[in-house]
């Protein structure tokens, strides 16, 4: 009996290494029994490598890092100086995490590109939009207008390129034989957005040029949607070395 009581006490006092989400509940939803991560929590890309983010914001949760539908605890360093939960939310730490490792910290829905209202009566269900739809020429322009928060289009003013590689060769914007194509598929890059939406492409940071060095990262499109091209946290040299074409930096 004494042994049984001792085991019960140890079990009661032992820490739960797979704790429920605590502290900052942004980007979560209640599923009827627990708070779990929404798809929007991890819809974006980190601004630095995932490996670096894992070092900066480590987790001891057996569920790992935030993922849609799971209840992995948000890494403490993402929002607090505390070493255990519950812990007070420190806004500066949360802001720093969102500007560098929003996906690792489950904070994508709080970034500028994802934190905006959708229209009252969208033409599709904003909550069910998939990544493939975000990149589909058939859906991108509709999503940008009706459900911008679903794909990180909040900073695009309702106007996006229908295809994602318009910036690869900017000469198409002036090519006479390509005008029908760019008017339909490259409105943002080529400055063909309707006057009621965002104007044209990103402003060139310095100088003028008609071509740009190739992006060195495959994440530039996602980073751009999250504000990388205009975020002064990074120097112009850093942005140019990684995403010169996407950010239109000569």
From TrEMBL:
Residues 159-193, 209-250 form the ShKT domain. SMART domains: ShKT. Disulfide bonds join 159-193. Pfam families: ShK. It comes from Caenorhabditis elegans. Residues 1-19 form the signal peptide. Keywords: Disulfide bond, Signal. This is ShKT domain-containing protein. GO terms for biological process: innate immune response. The lineage of its organism: Eukaryota, Metazoa, Ecdysozoa, Nematoda, Chromadorea. The keyword Cytoplasm does not apply. The keyword Disulfide bond applies.
């Amino acid at each position: 009996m004494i042994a049984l009581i001792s085991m019960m006490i140890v079990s009661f006092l032992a820490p739960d290494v797979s704790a429920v989400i605590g502290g900052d509940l942004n980007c979560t939803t209640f599923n009827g029994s627990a708070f779990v991560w929404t798809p929007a929590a991890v819809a974006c890309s980190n601004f630095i490598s995932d490996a670096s983010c894992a070092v900066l914001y480590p987790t001891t949760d057996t569920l790992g890092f935030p993922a849609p539908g799971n209840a992995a605890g948000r890494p403490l360093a993402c929002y607090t100086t505390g070493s255990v939960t519950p812990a007070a939310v420190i806004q500066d730490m949360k802001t720093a995490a969102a500007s560098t490792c929003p996906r690792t910290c489950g904070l994508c829905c709080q970034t500028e590109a994802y934190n905006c209202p959708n229209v009252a009566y969208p033409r599709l269900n904003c909550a069910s939009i998939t990544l493939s739809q975000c990149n589909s020429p058939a859906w991108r322009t509709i999503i940008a207008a009706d459900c911008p928060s679903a794909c990180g289009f909040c900073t695009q003013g309702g106007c996006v390129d229908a295809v994602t590689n318009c910036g690869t060769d900017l000469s198409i914007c002036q090519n006479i034989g390509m005008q029908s194509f760019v008017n339909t598929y490259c409105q943002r890059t080529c400055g063909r957005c309707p006057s009621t939406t965002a104007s044209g492409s990103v402003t060139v940071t310095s100088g003028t040029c008609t071509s740009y060095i190739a992006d060195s990262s495959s994440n530039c499109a996602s980073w751009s949607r999250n504000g990388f091209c205009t975020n002064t946290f990074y120097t112009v040299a850093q942005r140019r070395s990684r995403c010169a074409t996407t950010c239109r930096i000569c």
